[in-house]
Amino acid sequence: MWGRITYLGMLIGFVLGEEITVNVGGLFEKSTAEEQQEAFVYAIEQVNARLADDPEAFKFAPMVKNEIDEDRPFNILKTTCDMLKTGVVAFLGPNSFNNINIVQSACDTKEIPHLITRWNNWPVRHGTEINFYPHPPLLARAYFDIVMQWGWETFTLLYEDDESLVRTMNLVEMAKEEGITVQIEQLDYEQTGNYRTALKKMKKSDQRFFVLDCSVDILQEVLSQLQQVGLMNDNYNYFITNLDAHTIDLSAYKYGGTNITGIRLVNPERELVQQVARELFAQSQEDDEQEEGEADELLDLFLATQMKTETALVVDAVNMFANTLNERKKESSVPVVNNSTHSFPCDEVNSWEHGLSVVNMLKSSSYEGVTGLTKFNTEGYRSEFELGVFFLKEGGIVEIGSWNSSKGLNLTSLPSQAFVDNEDSLRNQSFVVIITLTEPYGMLRNEIKPLLGNDRYEGFGIDLIQKLSEMEGFNYTFIVREDKKNGNFDPVTNKWTGMIGDLLERRADLAITDFTITSDREEAVDFTSPFMSLGISILFRKPENAPPSFFSFADPFAPDTWMALVVSFFVVSIALFVIGRLVPDEWTNPFPCVQEPEYLVNQFSFFNSVWFTTGSLMAQGSEIAPIAMSTRMVAGMWWFFCLIIVASYTANLAAFLATENPVELITDLESLYENKHGIKYGAKEGGATHRFFTTAEEGTLFRKVGQYMIDHPENVKENDEGVLRAVNEKYAFFMESTSIEYAVQRHCTLKQYGGLLDEKGYGIAMRKESFYRKRLSLAILKLQSSGVIDELKRKWWQERRGGGQCEGKTEASDADPLKLVNVQGCFFVTIYGTILAVIIVIMEHLLYVVKVAKKNKLPFTKVFMAELRVYLDFNSDSKPVITKESLEGNSEDQENSQEVVEEPVVEEPKAKLPEPVLEPSKSLEPSKSRSKEKRSRSASGANGKITPGSNASTGRPYGFVIPPSPRDTNRPASATDV
């Protein structure tokens, strides 16, 4: 009955065109880029907006789960089942292989379409999976066609991980079939992020052709390390298989001459791609009605280049599925989705009757989207797509052709034709280059024989001009500016002085030295791209070592560690004392020859316990040895604690003894300005550094320092003079960081303090509108990208003219005291060991009481209370042996003692002492009653205690009985009386 009513409601809703909202599930791991999740939500909103005018179309709602773990299959299965129970018409994602298989199993069972947007080469089960990523065998065919087009007869495959290797195995097999020699090398086997080991190996192999397959997350770092090891110049060729290679910044590699080829599925120049990118990435921008200018077009193009492949595939997958589902709704006479019944719990056998039909419609349909034309084969793989082939040159990325899954490779231009250089050549041009004799940029050669012309000079600037000359083919002649002035504007003469004046007056064409590029200088002359980046910093003497403190032996541990150590010492001592009294095995027979003694003794008195822990801590031991399991547990944990603590103290003490404690007079610019130690400071008079401080904005710390320099002139004429003053005086010198690096390599007592106060660069100066500026700038960038400038800097800073002599004199690193958090593990081991020992001693004590009660046929509580009274008597280290007679005797003694207390005490007259008689103790056979009386008086006394030295069975002393002397009549017999 209810089923008919439900069906009737569905039919009425279908006829009347009731709007139904359906859920599309999006599964994203925690590691998945947030961009894909935003694309999923954006695509559904775009679909709803596009179909808003169609009353019969479905309205979609995103159901996103983005906290999925990759290695927890039960969780992803539970999440999938919860979403199926709620009601979904399709799943998109996840990304990891294990999760994909679990979700796919559930989708196959419930006949729910499963949309995948990542590379996946595992064979599908002819179920509900639809993969929008290009089919792997077709991708490998595209790789192979490009390699064949470039005519490579050998190449090395650089791959990231196992998935990367599987992805490129088809390429390797096809290359081998064509006779191409392939070498395979993993970039980083241990996944440490250091790829230089493998890359250096490739450099030694003289291989010049590489296929690089890795994720876009590490691609930038791999290319950077390729450049660092010298594999980025015009001798090397790379083919990058990642479809997102164009989304990273490749500008650092376009001037090195390296041949880099890549492919991409998303063409950023398409209008649809730019529109989606603008809406997806720039939703926060205001939609002002204004004319689209060149800046807007460049912004759209930039945003389009940032769209990754899987992001674009998410948009296409949602759009294509929405179109297909609405087509199915129009074709089917039975309602496709109903909110009240579209629920498929995993514990039920029902499934979506339209699911396989929608999947088949997807496989047979096509869609033109962000990633181009999309078609599938019968297995659900994308079999129709087009890849753009691009090449990296000096102007950036240029598309040189395409690869189509049906037509193959089609190149519209070759890499050599992608760029035509129309700039005027510098070949056979001649330039006059002005320099200054400033180390290490320009210096006179130290030669005995006379030198002429350019051979007289050497240095970083000299070598740099030589490298540029070799690249561009121009000639040059050096002239020297004797006063070493770079140039300032003279308001009196209204002219520039120094090297800038020489350029403007055409005495020179180029100027190179430590020439800082500033705004006022750029108004007068042009500069090339900076060949060196730097900033102002402070040069001052290294700190002197402070004398060691009186308590330096305590430095290895922090105060909280020392405090915890003292507390642990006393806690363990008390624990040994208490546990030693509670455990039965620590109460031992003082007379091994007597099998049934009347009293036992305990070695763990309080002072003995403290002595035991002290001996263990000092690694000296003691004569005390634990017997019981619980006391041995405490002792073992304490020994372990002492082992770790002593070893940590010794190791850190050695570090502290070898560590110097320098006293720094300054740390940065602020501490220097406060000037609590009478330090003088200054800069080169009239230089860019001096002007930086004196022309800084009012109220800033820089301006305050500049005003101090004006009020207290401690400036120098040359940098060399400032360095010497820093060596010999308490003088801080402001200088460019590169010059500071040069100075500290040769003066081991100097050090750079603080960071860079500004950022600037050194460039080659020339007159305005010089035609050779661009050519020289490009050449400098090529030298930087190929590492030549770094090699020149290493040569002149660290190898020549005394460089490197301070390399071995590294400063001792500071040693930090070990805090409690560093050694808390051994504290917790000791604590847990002590707690375990307490548990064991309680069990041992209870078992002992049960044993004694059973042996003497006494009540458990009576024996327990008797033992407890003895254990709590901390003033005695001995206890009587618990027997039935001793317990009854104690009761009688207590009653007698109470009666005696009530009677008046009457002093008896002293009896005459008998003569000493020596008799063997065995010949003395007193009566039973007298024996009890004697034991009561001599052994137990008033307190019921047994005096050491008496016989365990008779209460008499061992050996011969010596009557007490008159002076000993008032004390009980002891072992010394034997």
TrEMBL record:
Domain Ionotropic glutamate receptor C-terminal: 432-799
Ranges in coiled-coil conformation: none
Signal peptide bounds: 1-17
Intrachain disulfide bonds: 748-806
Pfam annotation, one family: Lig_chan-Glu_bd
Membrane-spanning parts: 562-583, 638-658, 827-850
Name listed for the protein in its UniProt record: Uncharacterized protein
GO molecular function list: ligand-gated monoatomic ion channel activity; signaling receptor activity
Topology in membrane: Multi-pass membrane protein
Annotated source species: Acanthoscelides obtectus (Bean weevil)
Region spans: Disordered: 886-978
Site for Interaction with the cone snail toxin Con-ikot-ikot, residues: 782
Domain Ionotropic glutamate receptor L-glutamate and glycine-binding span(s) in chain numbering: 440-505
Entry keyword set: Cell membrane, Disulfide bond, Glycoprotein, Ion channel, Ion transport, Ligand-gated ion channel, Membrane, Postsynaptic cell membrane, Receptor, Signal, Synapse, Transmembrane, Transmembrane helix, Transport
Keyword Zinc among UniProt keywords: no
Chain intervals with Low complexity compositional bias: 914-924
Family, similarity comment: Belongs to the glutamate-gated ion channel (TC 1.A.10.1) family.
Record's GO cellular component terms: postsynaptic membrane
InterPro entries the UniProt entry points to: ANF_lig-bd_rcpt, Glu/Gly-bd, Iono_Glu_rcpt_met, Ionotropic_Glu_rcpt, Iontro_rcpt_C, Peripla_BP_I
Sites annotated Crucial to convey clamshell closure to channel opening: 666
